[in-house]
Amino acid sequence: MSRPPDQADHLGGLHAQAAALGRAPVLALVGNPNCGKTALFNLLTGARQKVANYAGVTVERKTGWTRLSDGTSVAVVDLPGTYSLFPATPDEAVTLEVLEGRRADEPAPDGVVAVVDATNLRMNLRLVLEMRERGWPMVVALNMMDAARHRGVNIDVAALSRELGCPVVETVGVKHNGHQALLAQLSLGLPAWPQAAAVDGGKAAPTDAQTIQREVRRILAVVAPGVMSTAGSARFHHRLDGWVMHPVWGLLLLASLLFVMFQAVFAWAVWPMDLIKDGMAALAEFTQGAMAEGPLRSLLVDGVIAGAGGVLVFLPQILILFAFILVLEDSGYLPRAAFLLDTLMGRVGLSGRAFIPLLSSFACAVPGIMATRSISNWRDRLATIMVAPLMTCSARLPVYALLIGAFVPDRSVGWFNLRGLTLFALYVAGVLSACGVAWLLKRVWMKSSYQPLMLELPPYRLPSLRSLALGLWERARIFVQRVGTIIFALTVLLWFLSTWPGPPDGATGPAIQYSFAGQLGHALEVLVAPIGFNWQIAIALVPGMAAREVVVGALGTVYALSGSDDGVAEALSPVIAQQWSLATAYALLAWFVFAPQCISTLATVKRETNSWRYPLLMTTYLFALAYGAAFVTYRVTLWLGG
Ligand SMILES: Nc1nc2c(ncn2[C@@H]2O[C@H](COP(=O)(O)OP(=O)(O)OP(=O)(O)O)[C@@H](O)[C@H]2O)c(=O)[nH]1
Ligand SMILES: [Mg+2]
């Protein structure tokens, strides 16, 4: 970061600064983990970056734009949280690199918005003081003021501003317009430190931690003298922790939470799913009636509606899953679960820190693998990366739901719904195999000693409805966009490959048998016959490499085209229920517990490990496991008479 000009303690507004720079000024949001940087970033820029109640959510820098009241555009950079300017983990290192302008093609920020958690000044002010020492132009955003007030923490903002020597504004990251004071202050510009503490641009030996801590205590005594005496809610949280992190009750609570989640995915989704299904059927019927028979009609009915539309049906289930994940993320529960499982995870060779990345992998392995950056030990990190794809990502949910819907009867077992139970079992199978693989990896390949888990426990927080609604909306948008783009494109492509070339004269079977896709499917059948897959499944697995949900769409298209009559494309699930054996269905489920084929995951592993070795290794071991598991499942189910 450039040194502030000596003569000025005020840069005359960001507008003037922009003119002087000849480009838009760049501001960085810097602060401790979990203080609300990303929440503010989203408010400032209208972005929808992930916000959650635990440390280490943001692991990569993100840039967005905000416009001040005078029309000046300002680039805002959201950074991973850091406790100090002396980084301990790879994600913290990103922050320092950006701040010091050591990233290629990226100018150092022109100023800092120091985001401070008002409920935890003691911890947060240290970083502010370290930054002051560097002499960076800065505004302090006193965030979480709502929570601070609620707890009765009184902060003398004017005094804090005087003590720090820079403007301090109050913000609330989770309230619409909670950033207005910050915007107003930014229009006035970022003042440099009056005494320019950084005499030589911040290269002087840094003040030691103890001196900084003393200074924090001194400032606190001036600006928030009562801060120590507000322990009422803290006591309550402490008592709650006694239960939540209890070795027996805590585990029971965790198991029940996960269990209810999977029951809900089936039990609550029926009605909206039927609605979408009926809508799709009506659309297919309408198209069928309104258009003359021909390739275009087939494309729309068999390709688009049976394919991409068939995937859309699973939107309600995905949203229910995410509603649970979002509430868990925002409540502050996750790091506690991580502590609870630390010993257990330590036993299989994973660090407790791996819990959150692995849990994120239930949504998608890509952010999960990126979240491993908060693990400082490289071997622990690598082990976590290698097992992340075994966590059942949400793209597998449509495949599971389709097969379970077709083959598992909808009845209750005691209190439980059998379908929810099966889904739970599939997720558990994924988790258990992850434990097994991690244990093996650590045993034979990368031994590292146990490292005690150090995580900051965030306060419990009632998830805000606004964040939940925004989060679900974002998820729905992403899913519908996937259906509309990649899934749509792949099913259309598959439709083409399944329609041409047409059947030769005098052919008897359905036309698809003679098409490119049909030929490919038949060729692959040799490989997959031992695990009980037919040629239709073999075809569907190929485009499924790009996005797993495509398997459902592809099966929809393939079966719509293999239908002997050309009636309205039927719903897929009764068709496969009729045509597949139970053993085939279970084998496919077992295959998808391991489901090695996801190109974006492999690309992320390549990027994060900086080598081809690990993605290759991952593909090989996952393929072997998937094939082995499908084989065993198929044979055993056949043997049992399935
Ligand atoms: N009550 C209250 N909660 C807030 C406020 N700002 C953020 N939060 C919540 O605080 C938690 C952390 O917010 P994030 O924006 O993810 O924090 P961050 O600083 O980006 O965290 P990292 O990326 O992990 O460093 C989330 O649960 C937010 O909903 C606020 O002003 N008031
Ligand atoms: Mg963040």
Automatic annotation (TrEMBL):
Domain FeoB-type G: 24-192
Keyword Transmembrane helix carried by entry: yes
Entry-linked InterPro entries: Fe2_transport_prot_B_C, FeoB_GTPase, G_FEOB_dom, Gate_dom, GTP-bd, P-loop_NTPase
A Pfam entry, by short name: FeoB_N
PROSITE patterns the record matches: G_FEOB
Record's keyword annotation contains Transmembrane: yes
Transmembrane regions listed in the UniProt entry: 219-236, 248-271, 299-328, 348-370, 382-408, 420-441, 479-497, 583-604, 616-636
Keyword vocabulary terms for this entry: Membrane, Transmembrane, Transmembrane helix
SUPFAM superfamilies with a match to the protein in the record: P-loop containing nucleoside triphosphate hydrolases (SSF52540)
PANTHER family for this protein: FE(2+) TRANSPORTER FEOB, FERROUS IRON TRANSPORT PROTEIN B
Name of protein: Ferrous iron transport protein B
Source organism: Ideonella margarita
The organism's taxonomic lineage, starting at the top: Bacteria, Pseudomonadati, Pseudomonadota, Betaproteobacteria, Burkholderiales
